[in-house]
Amino acid sequence: MLESRFRRPLNEGDVLFRQGDVGDSAYVVESGAVEVVLEAGPRPPQVLARLGAGAVLGELALVDRQVRSATVIAREPTVLRVITREYLDARMDAADPMLRHLVHLLADRFRNVVSRLAEVQPSVVADARDAADRVSALTELALQQEMEAALERGEFELHYQPIVRLRDRSVAGFEALIRWRHAERGMIPPSLFIPAAERSGLIVPMGRWIVQTAGAALAELDAVQRRGAPARAPLFISVNVSARQLGDAALIDAVAGAVARAALPHRLRLEITESALFDNIDQAAEFLERCRALGVELYVDDFGHGHSPLSYLYRLPVSGIKIDRGYIADLGRYPASAKVVGAMTGLADALDMSAIAEGIETAQQCAMARNLGLRLAQGFFFAPAYPLAQAMQYLEGPDRAGSWGRLAQAAEG
Ligand code: C2E
Ligand code: CA
Ligand code: CA
């Protein structure tokens, strides 16, 4: 296990900090166990709590800048995630002054109560320390801090899943999907960090990086396609955008920059879920009109998965829908699902929109989607999301990327 600014390994018996030390970090126990010990002068030390994986410690000194109120010792080999004062300060500075004041007030009060209780009833203190909401809040803070550093260090990468024509399986474009190549934990899928990036707002700078990177990748993929099959229609690239990004004016600048640099009009697409669109319809409308003016098209992601009224389909400038993979998985399982997918395809046709089937995993789903009138699809049956080099190989001939495909799919689990 590597030691880093954000990770602290301890051997059994190591003291993390001593009562009275000045504190500059809080910790989340990732594995192992520590004991929180109160050293009370001539009396024998009292064990206030034994904390295992997921527990948080040391956060009080971080907030109120006072010394540590107890000593913490590792009772077995332990790994801690570190939340630094710098990071917390930056978050506190950005917070509402009223909230900041309240946090300090509460920290003071908590410390007073704890020191009085510790004398009379140590077990109550232990219980208070285990409060689940504090644990999850600080675990989240640790994750956010790690993600910010990862973005600076360039640990995020985009992979590209081919979107193919069902007619001949030629590649029409790619969807860019983010992954986090973590030094210790390997490849982390977006479901484990995008929600936290949305809550913390990190999705905003991350989103600009995604648009720039995807734009540059399109230029490279295009060069491969032009060499191999110059007569084919130009490729497109599709980028996922979440609700929080709709209010980011700088994202429009990033989009405009990508379009200008790679001469991309009508080839950069954004995918947004229906709930993100409908829940922020005014903001979405403004954002999308500005994207449209740049020649960027909007696709509704996970179509049919949300519970929004369909009016956004004509109230917003939508170019197409991506039929949620749940419906595709049901093809062949429930006869009526073919009718639903057929009706969605018909709705797209009637509105002059394009429809893409997501999550095709079998030859049967592929044949059914085609018979239902769908022209474009993506899914593991064709290819998983590849790193850029393998996406380029796939364009040269799916067989050349085939072995990569199976490897990548195995890696994605
Ligand atoms: P999504 O936009 O619906 O992306 C499609 C997901 O389905 C991807 O998972 C893809 O790997 C997976 N998939 C593709 N083909 C198949 C298949 O045949 N079967 C199955 N079972 N799954 C398939 P991934 O990459 O883990 O992404 C999950 C979600 O994370 C995405 O769902 C999207 O909501 C979000 N996400 C990914 N990249 C980004 C990003 O760059 N920005 C934002 N804001 N969100 C992203
Ligand atoms: Ca998507
Ligand atoms: Ca989707």
Q: Helical region count? A: 16
Helicity level: 40-55%
Low-confidence stretches: 403-408
Question: Which value, in Å, is the CA radius of gyration?
Answer: 26 Å
Query: DSSP strand (E) fraction?
Result: 15-25%
Give a list of the ligands: ligand C2E, calcium ion
Report the count of strand segments: 17
Task: Give the end-to-end Cα distance, rounded to a whole number of Å.
Answer: 24 Å
Q: What order do the strands of the largest sheet run in, or round the barrel if closed?
A: 9-10-12-13-14-15-16-17
Chain-averaged pLDDT: 86
Tell me what the structure shows.
This protein is of the alpha/beta class. Helix content is 47%, strand content 22%. It is built from 16 helices and 17 strands. It has helices at 59-64, 85-94, 97-120, 122-129, 132-153, 194-200, 203-228, 249-262, 274-279, 281-293, 312-315, 325-330, 335-350, 363-371, 388-396, 398-412; strands at 7-10, 15-17, 25-31, 34-38, 46-51, 56-57, 71-74, 78-84, 156-165, 171-182, 186-188, 236-240, 268-273, 297-303, 320-323, 354-357, 376-377. An eight-stranded mixed barrel has the order 9-10-12-13-14-15-16-17, surrounded by five helices. The longest helix has 26 residues, at 203-228. The radius of gyration is 26 Å and the shape is elongated. Mean pLDDT is 86; it is low at 403-408. The structure holds ligand C2E and calcium ion (2 copies).
